[in-house]
Amino acid sequence: MSVFIERGIMPLNEEIGLLIQLQKIDAQLSKYNETEQNFQARLESERSGLEALKNNLQAAHAQFEKVSKERREKEREVEIQEQQIQKTQARIKELKTNKEYQAHLNEVDALKKGRGAFEETILLLMDKMEVLKTAVAAEEQEFKEKEEKFLETVRAMEEELKKTKEDKRSQGLERSKIAEQIGKKMLAQYDYLLNNKKGFAMAGLTGNICPGCNMNLPPQLVAEVKKNEKMLTCSNCYRILYWQGL
Q1: Environment class of residue 210 by beta-carbon count within 10 Å: exposed (0-12), middle (13-18) or buried (19+)?
Q2: pLDDT tens by residue, 132-147
Q3: How many CB atoms lie within 10 A of CB 93?
Q4: Which of 15, 66, 125, 203 has CB atoms 3.0–4.6 Å from 239's, for a disulfide?
Q5: pLDDT digits (tens, 9 = 90+) for 23-56
Q6: Cα dist from 189 to 7, 61, 86, 237, whole Å
Q7: Taking the model in full, what pTM does it have?
């Protein structure tokens, strides 16, 4: 069974017309809100991608610094070994026996082998640093390109958002003007339906099916809607009905 909605002193056809205008504005306002939400979601997605590249770049720098530090430590070890070799060789004049001389040679040889091992490690670290240096440069280039693209995207989206907010404000003012002309009870009913029926409080009929819920309406109800003498709602979804058929 349909629901009759009390109206004010304004003629019925005029009040329905105002509600239709209101719904068009509310539909547009909903699109503006969606645009703003999409803007935020896209911005966060772009920022997350940039942040991931930044983290990769920082990790590449950290790895390069780690290997560089290890190389410096090994070079320091080589210096220490070299100093030790020189000190050991300087004691050769103090040697008196062949046994002492042989032990001295063995000690020098061991020190040189130790130095050689450090030098080999340094060469490997140098190769590794070259590879890491190339990787860091690639990460820096990718981050720079991504950052520039991100800033361009932000600028473009902010311009779009600025226009959206201006249009939204203009539509909001127009909505207020229209809403002031509608009776409080009718407006409250409309707003209730708007908030609880996925943003559409009204359903324009072109036949006997409610476009809001796709349910068949009784022929008598459709006939009453066509007369435009009463304000009626769908007996299933309770949206306000109006006739827009030919």
Answers
A1: buried
A2: 999 999 999 999 999 9
A3: 6
A4: 203
A5: 999 999 999 999 999 988 988 998 999 999 999 9
A6: 11, 62, 99, 13
A7: 0.63
Give the Cα separation of 81 and 113 in Å (integer).
10
What was the pLDDT predicted at 194? 93
How far, in whole angstroms, is CA 112 from its chain's centroid? 58
Task: With beta carbons less than 8 A apart as the criterion, state whether 22 and 175 touch.
Answer: yes
